[in-house]
Amino acid sequence: MTRSSKVTGGYTSESQPNIVKDNRKTSDDKPVQRSKSFSFKTQKETCASCEKTVYPMERLVANNLIFHNTCFCCKHCNTKLSLGSYAALAGEFYCKPHFQQLFKSKGNYDEGFGRKQHKELWASKDAESITKTA
Q1: Which of 18, 19, 73, 88 would be a feasible disulfide site paired with 7, CB 3.0-4.6 Å?
Q2: Polar residues bias located where (predicted)?
């Protein structure tokens, strides 16, 4: 196939696959234009767990936080989580079995997950307001 032969369809008259020539002209004095969908933000996203750069192919978003697929795991047992198999509480992620187990251990979300009971926080706020008014 010669460069000057005319290409019709996908093959030349010699029944060889065509070689499509790129006739676009490039100019060194024009800057490269990127599509509007390209964003530098996606290149600088960091994982909420390991704080390293997350690239689009390994990106996972849960509760508006960005993770690597491999970093998205249960806080209690480190099992890899998926978007359909996790429960979140106060920015921490758990597999569903451990989330239920920790809740059932104390019967509430606070003590089961190692925090003060919410009613104790209310009591301390009430005590502060009484001392301020006196």
Answers
A1: 18
A2: 1-18
Q: Is 121 helix (H, G, I), strand (E, B) or coil?
A: helix
> In the numeric block, which tokens belong to residue 45?
């996203």
Blockwise average pLDDT, block size 10, the chain, 134 residues: 51 53 57 56 80 93 93 93 88 88 67 57 60 60
| Max CA distance (Å), the chain | 101
d(CA 101, CA 96): 9
CB 47, CB 54: distance < 8 Å: yes
The two tokens of residue 84 are 């359909």
Residue type present at position 22 = D
- Runs of H (alpha helix) within the chain: 96-106, 109-112, 118-133
| pLDDT for the residue 107 | 61
Q: Is the pTM of this model over 0.85?
A: no
State the Cα–Cα distance between residues 125 and 134, nearest whole angstrom: 15
